[in-house]
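Extended Data, panel c. Modelled sequence:
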Amino acid sequence: MQQPAVPELAHTHTRPIHWLATATAVAGVVALSSVLQPNSATAAQSAAGPETGHAPAALAPPDPADVDLPLECGPVKAIVVKKATGDLDGDGNPETVAVVHCDAPMGTPPDGLYVLTRATGTATPRIVATLVDPKDSTTVSDITVRDGAVIADLLSYSSDDVPRCCPDLKNTAKWQWKNGTFARSTPAGAHSV
């Protein structure tokens, strides 16, 4: 057996006294941290603080159940199948984007994609835009609201010969509020099939 070039050091072997010293140090840190706590946070501001303006309370996102949806469903009802919320127009209040279709017992009913808002001071939401019209025979498979834009994955049909159960086209669309309307574009990196 070859001898090491460096002699053995005493501190390289743990002994019970080392474990006892480590446990005592850890216990001391824990005990000290429980005594030295910062002051608890409060929502109230001190009277000596600077005067600030009060921001209006943010409105709750509009609920699609509170809106008359523009679908003619005959004997079945319109149902909301997906929704997303976010501030789309930069006013500080959230809008709701809702995917809605008729609750058909069979087949793949087309979706409508609607933007709902609520004006400040009113409790009743209203539809301000139709992004996808059910007459277009499109299915919205996914929606998100990100960075003030609506992004949706859309499924559609290449021709009337394609069975209505099985959309054969997929693309992604993006709507952004610009100059008082929702402008549609294709997001970077989106691919059509």
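The two ends are 69 Å apart (CA to CA). This feature is highlighted in the accompanying rendering.
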